[in-house]
Write a structure and sequence with these properties.
One of its GO terms (molecular function) is sequence-specific DNA binding. This is Site-specific DNA-methyltransferase (adenine-specific). One of its GO terms (biological process) is DNA restriction-modification system. It catalyses: a 2'-deoxyadenosine in DNA + S-adenosyl-L-methionine = an N(6)-methyl-2'-deoxyadenosine in DNA + S-adenosyl-L-homocysteine + H(+). InterPro entries: Ade_MeTrfase_dom_2 (IPR023095), DNA_methylase_N6_adenine_CS (IPR002052), M_m6A_EcoRV (IPR012263), MeTrfase_D12 (IPR012327), SAM-dependent_MTases_sf (IPR029063). Strands 3-2-1-4-5-7-6 form a seven-stranded mixed sheet. It has 292 residues and is an alpha/beta fold. The longest helix is centred in the middle third of the chain and has 18 residues. The protein is built from nine helices and seven strands. The chain is globular and about 55 Å long. Strand 1, helix 2 and strand 2 form a beta-alpha-beta unit. The two termini are 15 Å apart. It has two domains: 148 residues, 3-Layer(aba) Sandwich (Rossmann fold); 89 residues, Adenine-specific Methyltransferase, domain 2 (Orthogonal Bundle). Helix 3 packs across helix 6, helix 4 runs antiparallel to helix 7 and helix 5 runs antiparallel to helix 6. The structure holds S-adenosylmethionine.
Length: 292
C-alpha cells in the first residue's frame, strides 16, 4: 500500500510557487488509500510537493508551465544536479550581493537573460530571490516577478538548503518510472486508466494567481466532469469557504467524499493579518482512507 502515509516531515522541493501545498501535504497523504499498482498522475504538478512526497514508482507529472517541466526534465537527464546548482548559486549569488537592492539589481540581469533564453538554473535563482516566491508571467510569456530586495539572499545556509532540496529530488527520481510533460490537464486525462490515481490541484477559482495559463469556470467544470468519469481514483484540492463566501463550484464535485481542514493564509508577518479559509479535499469513495 503506497497511501495513506502518515508524516509530519514533509520534504520541500527546490522550486516554490504560490499555492504550494506544503502545509496541507500531511492531511492529503493521510486521507488517501491507494495500492500504488497503477500510475500516479499529477496534472497540475507545480512545485511537486505532494507527488514527490508520495514518491510513487510510476508517475506522470505534468503542468502547462514549460519552465517547471524543463527544470524537472533537466534534473532527470542529469543536465543539472545539486553540485552544478551549488556552484551556480554561489557565483550568481555573489554578483547579486554586490549589486543594489533597486531596479539596477543583478536580479534583473538574470531575469532579462531568462526571458531571452529560458533555462532551469536562472529559473531557480529567480524563484529563490524574487518577491514572495511568486511564479508569474505576462501575456507574452515573460517572467515578470520583481526582486525580493534582499541582495544578500544567497547566504551559505540558504545555498546549502536549496542544494539539499535539489539532491533530495534527484535521488527521489533515480530508478523511478517518472515522466514530466508540458501539457494541459485534458491531455493528461487521455493517458489515465482504471487503477491509476490522479491528484488534482488546479488554480483556485475566483483568485487570480498569475499562473502560466488563464483558468476559468469552464475549465474547472470540464475538470470535474473528466475526473469523475475517468474510472481512476482521485483526490481534488480546492477552497470550500471563507468568512465571506462559499465556493459554488464545489457543487460539481458530488461523486466523492468531502474532507475539510482549516488553513490560515498570512498577509504580511503579523498574526492579526491572517485569513482563515476552509480547504476541501474530495477523494473518490474507494480511495478514502477512513482510518486516521
Ligand atoms: C495550485 S498550482 C499547483 C500547486 C502544486 N500542487 C504545489 O503544491 O506546488 C496550479 C498549477 O496548475 C498549472 N496550470 C494552470 N492551468 C493549467 C491547465 N489548463 N492544465 C494543466 N496545468 C495548468 C499552473 O501552471 C500551476 O503550476
Amino acid at each position: 500500500m503506497l497511501l495513506p502515509k502518515i508524516t509530519d516531515n514533509v520534504k520541500i522541493p527546490p522550486i516554490k510557487i504560490q499555492g504550494i501545498k506544503t502545509k496541507l501535504t500531511p492531511f492529503i497523504l493521510k486521507s488517501i488509500s491507494w495500492d500504488g499498482n497503477g500510475v500516479y498522475f499529477e496534472p497540475f504538478v507545480g512545485s511537486g510537493v505532494v507527488g514527490f512526497n508520495i514518491n510513487p514508482q510510476r508517475a506522470v507529472f505534468s503542468d502547462t508551465n514549460p519552465h517547471l517541466i524543463q527544470f524537472y526534465n533537466d534534473l532527470q537527464s542529469k543536465k543539472i544536479n545539486s553540485t552544478i546548482v551549488r556552484e551556480f548559486l554561489e557565483e550568481e549569488g555573489s554578483k547579486l550581493a554586490s549589486s543594489p537592492a533597486d531596479k539596477n539589481s543583478y536580479y534583473y540581469t538574470v531575469r532579462d537573460r531568462f526571458n531571452k533564453s529560458p533555462n532551469s538554473l536562472d529559473l531557480l535563482f529567480l524563484q529563490r530571490s524574487n518577491f514572495n516566491g511568486m511564479m508569474r508571467f505576462n501575456s507574452s510569456g515573460y517572467y515578470n516577478v520583481p526582486f525580493g530586495r534582499k541582495p544578500h539572499r544567497f547566504q551559505k545556509a540558504l545555498i546549502t538548503k536549496i542544494t539539499n532540496q535539489v539532491k533530495w529530488l534527484e535521488e527521489a527520481m533515480d530508478g523511478k518510472d517518472w515522466r514530466f510533460e508540458c501539457m494541459t490537464f485534458e491531455d493528461a486525462f487521455k493517458l489515465v486508466k482504471e487503477g491509476d490515481f490522479v491528484y488534482l490541484d488546479p488554480p483556485y477559482i475566483g483568485r487570480h494567481d498569475g499562473y502560466y495559463d488563464a483558468w476559468s469556470l469552464e475549465l474547472a467544470d470540464q475538470l470535474a466532469e473528466l475526473t469523475q468519469t475517468s474510472g481512476a481514483g482521485y483526490a481534488f484540492s480546492m477552497w470550500l469557504e471563507n468568512q465571506y463566501r462559499s465556493n459554488l463550484h464545489m457543487q460539481k464535485w458530488n461523486d466523492g467524499v468531502l474532507l475539510t481542514i482549516e488553513h490560515f493564509y498570512y498577509v504580511g508577518a503579523s498574526e492579526k493579518n491572517r485569513n482563515k479559509i476552509t480547504e476541501a479535499l474530495i477523494v473518490s469513495k474507494e480511495n478514502h482512507n477512513k482510518v486516521t
